[in-house]
Amino acid sequence: MPRNGTFKKDVTTTPNFPGADAQAQGQQPGQPAQQALLLPTPPDLSAGAKLRRTGIIGVAYGLMAAWFLSGIQTCPTAATLGVPCPGCGLTRATLAAAQGDLAEAFALHPLFWLISPVFIGLLLAVALGYIRGRTALPFLARVSPRTITIAGIAFSVITFGVWLARFYGAFGGPVPVG
Do β-strands 6-9 and 38-41 pair in parallel, antiparallel, or remain unpaired? Predict the structure, then answer.
């Protein structure tokens, strides 16, 4: 049970007789019944709580932006090993794309057009969910964990594949570190 909330059953109540649940869900009696989706129903936040949470997010994102724009080395792999990680160049590529320099963005990281929007979108969704006091991505509750896992694995394999290919000269070679 979630903190300060209750669970809401996402199906209607049916009469209590054998097969009633299956019939209500469009199944034949005797087939395995689908489980009801239980979604947490968080309490509503006051306007003051939402304002405070907005301030916290603003400060956190402001500090992140200042760190990235400062030019300080942010990649532990690059700082420790001296080689770029699979995500090296993404911040610089995203900034170059934001300034309209798509050639530079592609040279810094050829997957910036895929990774950056997903990452920025998830950051904004998490921030919005925190401010509102509930999830900003309720559709993900209805997506099967297997689908999310497969998408995550595919995303990782593509990113890792591009990273390896760059060491062999593809996409202009490895991105400069530092």
Answer: antiparallel
Domain boundaries along the sequence of the chain = 1-43, 46-172
The encoded tokens of residue 165 equal 């290919």
What does 1-36 look like in DSSP terms, one character per residue? --TT-EEEESS----SSTTHHHHHTT--TTSPPPPP
* pTM recorded for the entire structure: 0.60
- Give the span between the Cα atoms of 96 and 171, in whole angstroms: 17
For 24-38, letters b (16+ CB in 10 Å) and e give: eeeeeeeeeeeeeee
**Matching residue, tokens 């593509």:** 158
pLDDT digits (tens, 9 = 90+) for 83-142: 888 888 888 898 899 999 999 999 989 999 999 998 888 888 888 888 877 766 676 777
